[in-house]
């Protein structure tokens, strides 16, 4: 690896205080249109108020090289309600309840391009999901064969929804779920 990373936990207050540093990582990893960044910052700030919020950063020297956070999913949260409705349409209420009733929502995972492919993404994901009491972990990612999608599959996540559009203007997403604790999936699964 060559470089040493320290994995540092940020509680809600510390995360909110360092929001501009996390947004820098988000912007470099996702390359979104600049006009979306203010809205994204507001979303991250809101997420930090959700129950059992837990964020981890991979720190290299003074730099945040990557971060991941999650919280307990609950009715009234926008993502939770959208996904619950879509899963209910697909599978009936038992399908939605099986995945969402006691779930860790992994909301963001990003690594600076210059620090990718060193195992940091996997490490952050497993650390955020470790020692949780929820039964499942759920997340969404663009519905494409991306590095993120491969990482989630390798970590035991399977597709719950594909081609799902959270809103008209957005690309299709895949919603994925895994039972906790996370385990590396066998190569054939
Ligand atoms: C998705 C993302 C978080 C993964 O982070 P990462 O630190 O690169 O992830 P890892 O290093 O754990 O795994 C990435 C790859 O490196 C490989 N790798 C990991 N450690 C390695 C090592 N020591 N030597 C060689 N390869 C290694 C993995 O096998 C994996 O290969 P793959 O891409 O062919 O599947 C990161 O790529 C990212 O920020 N992407 C853009 C933003 C994004 O899509 N975020 C997710 C939104 S849902």
Number of DSSP strand runs: 7
Report the biggest beta sheet as strand number plus sense, adding barrel if it closes: 7 strands, mixed
Query: Roughly how much helix do the residues carry, as a percent range?
Result: 25-40%
H and E order: EHHHEEHHEHEHEE
**Distance, first to last CA:** 28 Å
Please identify the structural class as seen in this structure: alpha+beta
What is the gyration radius calculated from CA atoms?
A: 16 Å
The overall pLDDT, averaged over residues, is 95
In what range is the share of β-strand residues?
A: 25-35%
Name the overall outline. Answer: globular
Provide the spatial order of strands within the biggest beta sheet: 1-2-3-4-5-7-6
What's the number of helices? 7
Low-confidence stretches: none
Ligand inventory reads: coenzyme A
């Amino acid at each position: 690896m060559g470089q040493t990373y320290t994995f540092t936990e940020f509680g809600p207050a510390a995360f909110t205080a360092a929001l501009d540093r996390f947004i820098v990582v988000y912007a470099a990893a996702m390359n979104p249109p600049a006009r979306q960044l203010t809205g994204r910052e507001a979303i991250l700030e809101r997420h930090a108020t959700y129950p059992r919020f837990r964020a981890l950063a991979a720190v290299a020297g003074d730099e945040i090289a990557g971060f991941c956070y999650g919280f307990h999913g609950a009715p009234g949260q926008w993502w939770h309600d959208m996904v619950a409705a879509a899963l209910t349409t697909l599978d009936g209420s038992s399908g939605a309840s099986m995945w969402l009733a006691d779930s860790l929502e992994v909301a963001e995972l990003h690594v600076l391009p210059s620090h990718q492919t060193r195992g940091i993404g996997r490490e952050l994901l497993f650390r955020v999901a470790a020692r949780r009491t929820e039964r499942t972990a759920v997340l969404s990612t663009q519905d494409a064969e991306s590095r993120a999608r491969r990482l989630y599959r390798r970590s035991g996540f399977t597709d719950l929804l594909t081609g799902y559009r959270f809103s008209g203007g957005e690309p299709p997403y895949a919603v994925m779920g895994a039972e906790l604790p996370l385990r590396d999936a066998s190569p054939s699964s």
